[in-house]
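Review session, final week

We close the course with one last complete record, chosen because it touches almost every idea we covered. It is Ferredoxin, a protein from Halorubellus litoreus with 81 residues. Go through it on your own first, then we will talk.
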Amino acid sequence: MRVEYDYDTCIGMFQCVAEWDAFERDEDAGKAVLADAEEREDGVFVREVPADAELDAKFAARACPVEAITVYDDDGDQLVP
């Protein structure tokens, strides 16, 4: 499973931070940061989701009010949102 996070779409509500500890607050920027993620050329941050954090990643994606977080299964099918 992997998660993709669109930093530019984030509006800094930090609901993802409450759901999954891979997201951290960046108070200076007013946005969340996805730890241990790689930035693609399109500005989206991507990282693999550990098996023990899959539920948390899904909750973080569902909690995002602007759908800046998307979760995909290992086959590349979108799970959330």
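Two points worth writing down before the exam:
Strands lie at 2-6, 23-26, 31-34, 38-39, 44-48, 69-72, 78-80.
The mean pLDDT is 96.
Good luck, everyone.
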